[in-house]
Design goal:
Blueprint lengths: L2 H6 L9 H15 L7 H8 L9 H8 L7 E3 L6 E3 L1 H36 L5 H12 L6 H33 L21 H10 L5 H18 L8 H16 L5
Helix pairs in contact: 5-6, 5-10, 6-7, 7-8, 7-9, 7-10, 8-9, 9-10
């Protein structure tokens, strides 16, 4: 196994202490390069072109090989070290724990997808139900942002259809009553909605009493989440947020405003 693939199993490697990084790299040399004994140069060479070696490596190897329960031990060959039993136990405990955590995460994800599919099954129209089911399937490959973006698109599309079928006169009246360029618009088909920003579309739906104040609050909040997911950012999209996003929009918008 190459170091690059080994590090894929340690996604938070950069956050580890210097001691832990040295132990993990030493373990890599032992398990994947067959190097029971290693030197400073061996660790630096395996890091070459991929990551910065731990700093003060010579001094750190010396320190980690001292004491009764040291994680490294000196070898008979000068300048060479080997992982001691405490060090092996520490690394293998980490990998065992990481595997269990990953298995638990997979179980939670599978249960969430099953639950969300039950939510989606309530959607009446076949094409919308299939679209939402496809959005939920994105979670299977951990595309949480993609799920949020698709579910939002499906929800807004549903509102467009609802207005065209049931509330077109009210929506157009609210459009004419606005100040600004929207007052010159008249909606006659679904494509016409593309001339209106989604945030303004939500405002008009509320001012025309097509949606309630509480539904507007939900839509405003979910639009903010969608916007965060639609642009590169360092936010963490937790599974619970995705589940809440889908529940809120399906239960409070798609199922409430029946076409």
């Amino acid at each position: 196994m190459e170091l690059k693939n080994y590090l894929k199993n340690i996604p938070n490697f950069s956050d580890f202490s210097r001691k832990s990084k040295i132990l993990l790299l030493s373990y890599f040399l032992r398990q994947n390069r067959g190097m029971v004994e290693f030197s400073v140069k061996d660790i630096r060479d395996c890091c070459s072109g991929l990551l910065k070696p731990p700093s003060q490596l010579s001094q750190q190897l010396e320190l980690l090989s001292k004491g009764r329960d040291s994680v490294l031990m000196k070898c008979s060959k000068r300048g060479y070290y080997s992982i001691a039993i405490p060090g092996l136990n520490e690394v293998e405990t980490y990998f065992t724990s990481a595997t269990k955590t990953e298995a638990l995460a997979d179980k939670i994800l599978a249960e969430a997808i099953l639950y969300l599919r039950k939510i989606i099954s309530k959607v009446g129209e076949d094409n919308k139900r299939k679209f939402m089911a496809e959005a939920v399937s994105c979670l299977g490959v951990d595309a949480r942002r993609g799920t949020i973006i698709m579910v939002w698109a499906g929800t807004i599309d549903h509102l467009y259809d609802y207005i065209l079928s049931n509330k077109l006169a009210e929506f157009n009246a609210a459009l004419r009553a606005r100040n600004g360029r929207e007052s010159r618009l008249t909606i006659t088909n679904k494509d016409d909605f593309s001339d209106i920003k989604e945030s303004i579309f939500i405002e008009i739906c509320r001012s025309s009493h097509i949606i309630t104040k509480d539904v507007r609050r939900i839509l405003d909040e979910k639009l903010g989440v969608r916007n965060s997911c639609a642009h590169p950012s360092n936010i963490e999209v937790h599974l619970s947020k995705v589940v809440n996003f889908i529940e809120d929009l399906v239960d409070n918008v798609i199922l409430k405003y029946v076409i």
